[in-house]
Amino acid sequence: MATMEFGAKVPEYELLFEELSCVVRAEGKRGEEKTILKNVSGRFRPGRLTAVIGPSGSGKTTLMNILSGFRTRGVKGRVTVGGKDRVARDFRRHSCYIEQEVAMMTHLTAHETMKVASRLKMPESITNEQKDKTVRISDLRVLNSNSRISNFTPPL
């Protein structure tokens, strides 16, 4: 178990996904389907930074939406948390997924973006001070937490 700075014990679980596939209706074509993901497997280990990398349109956002429980329609495969089948509704209640549109607020630093997300997602019973303490960008050595997100976006 990990301990948050304000003393709450937080269980650490491995998230495992096996043979995930996602099929959607093709836009503008009646009855046709498009495969977005096909037999994708992987895992997220507790205490480890994991990057999901791929070209535009490769299914990264779809994968994250499936893992977080936001997408369930057209999905096949298995997702487990701590060795047990993940129940999407329960998982959403106990986890925080910062969607791409929120994470790319170009006028905020990475640290500020995480603070905004924690204040929006965490329950009102937790004080803003406690929420801010849960944001530990210093553990994420990939980005300088004082840099603006736009600094990492290449010019067009």
From TrEMBL:
InterPro entries: ABC_transporter-like_ATP-bd (IPR003439), ABCG_transporters (IPR050352), P-loop_NTPase (IPR027417). It is a multi-pass membrane protein. Pfam families: ABC_tran. Residues 37-129 form the ABC transporter domain. It comes from the Eukaryota. Keywords: Membrane, Transmembrane, Transmembrane helix, Transport. One of its GO terms (molecular function) is ATP hydrolysis activity. The keyword RNA-binding does not apply. It is found in: Membrane. GO terms for cellular component: plasma membrane. The keyword Membrane applies. Belongs to the ABC transporter superfamily. ABCG family. Eye pigment precursor importer (TC 3.A.1.204) subfamily. This is ABC transporter domain-containing protein. It comes from Ladona fulva.
